[in-house]
Structures are given as structure tokens and as C-alpha cells.
Amino acid sequence: MQAITAAVLAAFVGYAGAWYFDKVEGNFALLLFLATVVTGVYWVAERVYFLPQRRAAAAKLEADAATRRAELSARGITQTDTVDIREAQQKILMQPWWLDWTAGLFPVIIAVFVLRSFLFEPFKIPSGSMIPTLLVGDLILVNKFTYGLRLPVINTKLTDGTPPARGDVMVFRYPPKPSLDYIKRVVGVPGDEVAYLNKRLTINGKPVSKDPRPDYFDEDAMRYFKQFEEVLGDKRHRILNDDDRPAFIAGIEDFPAKENCRYSVEGVTCKVPAGHYFMMGDNRDNSLDSRYWGFVPDRNIVGRAFFIWMNFGSLKRIGSFE
């Protein structure tokens, strides 16, 4: 079992190393699931087979010592060296390294697996597409049950939950490459006609309110951007516009239901198909979103982002957001 366990652990370490050095396309959900299954098998084997064996060996050691004392006493030998077998029993009962690194880790791994798969999952904001709502380096929590519980890895929905609403900040699997997680704001829900023309958002023919606010200074770009307050559904949030970027959308990809969209020099108008969502970043002129790669299907939803739990560059960032 030592050799088998060493091979299994080496496989996990090798996969993690190859992922770290970009040799393979990693899947943390799959890795965590496999770790849960493997350590769970060892945990059951420990409870059912290995631990009872060690306990039996410890009990046999004590019984052998008692038998030896009885035999010596029958011969009239009453003065014998006192041997403390407790230390030997403790060594016998101690988990070997290969069980300590598998069965011993199972309670922690399954707790992380359940928490991450069905309750809350942490993410780090890697880009500035959601500025000013979310900044690069924000560590956020994503609610995994609001939109319905889903099976890990395959993402099959178990419960319906509450459908995503306009204005929600949602994490989802990037449609062109589902191994990547993206975060954007829900702008259009199934059946909506979303228009973003001349940097003005309209939903089902009704312009979305866009009230001017003081200019926003981006410390990374070292420049000011025009800032507005927008209201989507019952969510009030800030957005940015860059006067130096044209309304025309360049670099459009092919995507399912692209025929639902009409592109022009002014921007884009799209009819959101059933079971899909139209996503946009709050940093409107610096966001690769549904305008470029299309709609997000329901099966790609990961969860609703709602809380910044840490930003090591600015602790005052901690708190909820919309």
C-alpha cells in the first residue's frame, strides 16, 4: 500500500505542478473531487480494516505479555523484569505516513469540497473589467446556492433556485473556454432586447438611467475616467466610460445565436435567447464581454458574487457590494 499511495500522491503533485507551469489546463473542481474520493476510500479502509488490524495487534501484544507472566508464575517465578508495553502499543496504533496523508486529510478535504461546491467559493479578481465595483486583487466570495445547487465538475443543476436578475454580479464559465471563470454583470435576461449604442444602454426599448458622478481616477492606468451611476433592476452601481474608445465593437468572435445580434458603428443590439444571459463589465470600454463573444448559457453559471473578504493592498475594500 505504501508504494500505491506514493504513486497516487505523486500523480496529484505532478498534475498540480504541470498546471502551475502551464503544461496542462487545470481543473481545480475536478482535482478537489478526485482528492475527496481518494482520501474517502482510504478513510473508509482505515475505519473498516487497517485500524481494527492495529487494535487487534495491540491487544495481542498485551495478551501475549499476560500469558508470559502467567507461565512464569506457574513455574514459581514471581520476580520478573517489569516491561511497559504501552509504548509499543502506541507505536502499533499510530497511523503510518501513507494513511496520515490520505485518510487523515479526508475530514478537511471533504469540508472544503462541500463548502466550495454547494455554499461559497472564493475568487480573485484578475483584471480591471469590473472597475469601479471590483478592483484587481479583490478576493471575493461567490454564493453557490442562490441560482440553484449544481453538481461539482459537471455543473448539472440539482435545484432551481432564484434565476439571475438584471444587475447581479455573476461568475460564470467563459463560453469560448469553459475551464476559465469570468465575472461580469447581468445586463440582459432571457427574452430581453439589449442595445448598447453610442455608449448608452437600453433594455426592451427603455433607456437605463445613467447619472453623472465625479470622474474616477484609476491608479493603475494613472488617468481619470468618466463615471456614472446606473440602475439595473433594483441594483444601483457605478460604471466607467473612456472617451478615447469608440462605440464601434472590434474583434467580434463567432458564437451561438450570433444572428440574434446586429452590429453597427454605434454598437450592438442583441435579443437574448431562452436559457441565456447577456453580460457586461462595469468598466464598459475596457471589458471583453457578451458584446464580443456572445451569450452565457445557464449551464455555465457558477454563482453570484456578493462580498469582498480581503484585498491585501487596501483593507477598507472588505465588505459587500452590488
TrEMBL record:
GO terms for cellular component: membrane. CDD domains: S26_SPase_I (cd06530). PROSITE patterns: SPASE_I_1 (PS00501), SPASE_I_2 (PS00760), SPASE_I_3 (PS00761). Pfam families: Peptidase_S26 (PF10502). Keywords: Hydrolase, Membrane, Protease, Transmembrane, Transmembrane helix. It catalyses: Cleavage of hydrophobic, N-terminal signal or leader sequences from secreted and periplasmic proteins. Its main location: membrane. The keyword Protease applies. GO terms for biological process: signal peptide processing. The chain crosses the membrane at residues 28-45, 98-119. InterPro entries: LexA/Signal_pep-like_sf, Pept_S26A_signal_pept_1, Pept_S26A_signal_pept_1_CS, Pept_S26A_signal_pept_1_Lys-AS, Pept_S26A_signal_pept_1_Ser-AS, Peptidase_S26. It is a single-pass type II membrane protein. One of its GO terms (molecular function) is serine-type endopeptidase activity. Coiled coil: none annotated. It is found in: Membrane. Belongs to the peptidase S26 family. This is Signal peptidase I. It comes from Ramlibacter albus.
